[in-house]
Write a structure and sequence with these properties.
single chain; Rossmann fold; NE0471 N-terminal domain-like; 2 domains; 8-stranded mixed sheet; 19% strand; globular
Length: 387
């Protein structure tokens, strides 16, 4: 089943390894223990069974699950000289720290090392032609998650929760993280959604019910489906044999295939939309200014000196008080823009000729401060030049 093509997006330097990947989707939860990795695995295998080309990137550097879930615990990834070659199992490809390091070797790394490893998985794995690359996110909302949202050109995100209040509270944080970095929400999945007795057929809501639907409703997002508790899911996970293949007629398998169809439908819907606050192009001009073309046809112009003086990075603004510590008089009057790097789907990193390059400028802020004649007139403002 062919995946829908992406709609207009800002021109960005995608790593060559991702050039033929049509949709990159993060699957997150905000907390561990909700079955996010199991959802990712079975969603991927179900999508492949429906005809899509699918791969999984296991982003949990410290506790990778995909090798066990896919029956590849003893397998090691190999390279072709320039790229790692992903492992193939059950009709999908995947890469994981668990197939790079020894099975029992702990990963005792600080966050910057983990972030670097994840970028290498994105940029130096031979992913090939894919309809979907699913990123099995680690639990939490820290450095690793934020860096992934910034480095990967994400089509959207899926949030996994279980029905009980405690899980919902943490899942909301994960959902808000994606919203904060402007990653569209594909939808919400409720896992462990009741146990169906094999003897009498009665459904028992062990972890309450309808929590996933509540979260989706609050976020104005699609509810992609509910996956019931079923012994075959656990047995298949332990055996490295996904339940959608192990017992395709079971209740859980049927729910996973329904999830896969709902997922494809939402991805197609998202790709048909033109993001209101994500430009088509953002680049430097010959004069060293920032030029942006927006989806509605508007073209913004930004002078480099004002941009440099309002840099939002921690070196220019006190993170505790919000007070600006950069003295504008110390910014060279002839400063130019030296480079533009898209950051996730919510902004750009700007490099200046004075060597400063740590500020991330949001698209929302750039649109509001456009220096074209029409926008300045509407705001009753003038272009900000040094005096």
């Amino acid at each position: 089943m062919a995946a829908a093509r992406q709609g207009p997006r800002v021109q960005r330097e995608r790593p060559e390894a991702l050039a033929s990947v049509r949709n990159i989707v993060a699957v997150g939860s905000g907390k561990g223990g909700v079955g996010k990795s199991t959802i990712t695995t079975n969603l991927a295998v179900a999508l492949a069974a429906l005809g899509a080309r699918v791969a999984v990137l296991d982003a949990d550097i410290y506790g990778p699950s995909q090798p066990a879930l896919l029956g590849a615990k003893k397998t090691r990834a190999e390279g072709d000289g320039e790229h790692l070659v992903p492992i193939e199992r059950h009709g999908i490809r995947f890469i994981s720290m668990g197939v790079v390091m020894a099975d029992d070797a702990p990963v005792v790394w600080r966050a910057p090392m983990a972030v670097k490893a994840l970028y290498q998985f994105l940029a130096y794995v031979k992913w090939g032609d894919l309809d979907y690359l699913l990123i099995d996110m680690p639990p939490g909302t820290g450095d690793v998650q934020l860096s992934l949202a910034q480095q990967a050109p994400l089509t959207g995100s899926v949030v996994v929760t279980t029905p009980q209040d405690m899980a919902l509270g943490v899942a909301r944080k994960g959902l808000k993280m994606f919203q904060q970095v402007k990653v569209p929400l594909v939808g919400v999945v409720e896992n462990m959604s009741g146990f169906i007795c094999t003897n009498c057929g009665t459904k028992h809501d062990i972890f309450k019910k309808d929590g996933g639907q509540t979260l989706a409703r609050e976020a104005g997002a699609a509810f992609l489906g509910a996956i019931p508790l079923e012994a075959d899911v656990v047995e298949g996970s332990d055996a490295g044999d996904p339940v959608v293949l192990r017992r395709p007629a079971g209740a859980a398998s049927k729910a996973f295939f329904a999830l896969a169809r709902a997922f494809e439908k939402e991805i197609a819907r998202l790709n048909a939309l033109t993001p209101a606050d994500e430009p088509l192009r953002a680049d430097t001009t010959a004069a060293g200014e920032l030029a942006i073309e927006w989806a509605d046809g508007h073209k913004s112009a930004h002078s480099p000196w004002p941009l440099r003086t309002v840099c939002p990075c921690a070196a220019c603004v006190d993170e505790d008080t919000g007070r600006r510590v950069l003295d504008p008089s110390r910014v060279p009057l002839d400063v130019k823009l030296a480079g533009v790097t898209p950051v996730g789907r919510y902004g750009v990193g700007l490099a200046f000729s004075d060597g400063h390059n740590t500020g991330i400028y949001t698209y929302d802020k750039l649109r509001k401060t456009c220096e074209c004649a029409d926008c300045l007139a509407k705001r009753g403002a003038v272009r900000s030049f040094p005096v």
